[in-house]
Each structure stands twice: as C-alpha cells, then as structure tokens.
Description:
The chain is built from no helices and 21 strands. With about 250 residues, it is an all-beta fold.
Amino acid sequence: xxxxxxxxxxxxxxxxxxxxxxxxxxxxxxxxxxxxxxxxxxxxxxxxxxxxxxxxxxxxxxxxxxxxxxxxxxxxxxxxxxxxxxxxxxxxxxxxxxxxxxxxxxxxxxxxxxxxxxxxxxxxxxxxxxxxxxxxxxxxxxxxxxxxxxxxxxxxxxxxxxxxxxxxxxxxxxxxxxxxxxxxxxxxxxxxxxxxxxxxxxxxxxxxxxxxxxxxxxxxxxxxxxxxxxxxxxxxxxxxxxxxxxxxxxxx
Length: 252
C-alpha cells in the first residue's frame, strides 16, 4: 500500500462490517471498521463512497479537502444520503457516465437505479427472466462497466424459477452482454465480480477458486491464478488485481 499510495475498503456481510485499511503517517497499519447490517456492494466515485446494506444504500462523502489532514487521516467519510430500497440483496454497485448509481438487484434478478419515489427503478433484466419477482431466480450478482455503462453481468444459472440457480452452482454460471442480452460465456461455477480492465473481461470463477478472464472471441474462461477459498470482490489498481477471499461456503 505504501508503494502504490492506496488504501483498501472491504465489506463482510456475515459480520456486518466495513473495513477501511491504510497506513498511518509513521507507516504503521491503520484499520477502521463500522457496523452496517449485511453490507455488500461498495464503490467509490470521486469523494463519494457508496455502500449497500440490508435495506438501504448509503452515500458517504469525504469532508477533508485535498491536501489537508484530519487527525492524521487524509479522508473522513460521513453519511450524507440514504436510499431505502427494502431487501433487494444488492451485490454490486457502480456509478455510470451520467453520475447515476446502478446496482445489481439480485433478489429481483435485474439491474436497477435508485429512485426518489420507489424502492428502485429497474433498467435491465436478462431475456430469460419472465417477470420481476422477489425470488432470486438466477442469482444475478455481478456487473462490469464498459465506457461508463453496464456492459456485462454474471449469473449463477439461467433459471426463471425461484432459487432455481441453487441446483446449477457447479457448472450453470454464465456471463451475459447487457447490450445484446446474449450469452458470452457459460459453464462457469458461481461466477462473481466481472470487471472490464485493460481491454479484458476479468472475473472470479468462485466455485472453482480461479481468477481469470473471458476470451470474448471464443467465450472460454482463461484461468490465471488459483486461490484456495471462495472468491468474491475484485478491483484493479494499475497492474495489480485485488481479490476478496473467504472460506469455502460448502453447500450454502
């Protein structure tokens, strides 16, 4: 972190904690944590930090001006806005080119935007999902932004019945194109966290423990690194991939 000049933010929904990890002025590790019920999705846009929780999406804003320090820290995030979504099992967040927050609404099997009048505004769903229902039909869980727009999503199965994905976790996973609705890769095991970086579509083939990328010409998953655990959460900084790793989840 010292070499790259960065800090890390991560969530762990079972413990209901977010962690901000950085370095103190003397080089020692700094760790700050806060409790947020079932926090999962996180994204940063400028001085804004967005976090999804069980019933809400929060926007935290940095109030320390560039170049200033507050109690030894160069950032201080305070809560400014909350959208009450109800339980949507939100997994992934991103801010699009228009400054609009887009999130993966896993429970309703769609991509959605925040709304001032409703729990959410659906903006896209897979062609095989016949209707919006709070049934987690395909476990739509990840979204890759391309040129400031949702480009690709990951699903655990192309199922259109309640919890239908649970029987296809071993090999039913797919990557879908948001623009066309087409399947660009299949045969994956619980894929998560797709990210378009440096001209490639990277993702976590979580059920197998492999981090790799999709060859968009062939639809084949190309594994790069095996990680002994269950993979969720992926970010890039320069040539570095930062991957979230937890214990294997068994049959849950």
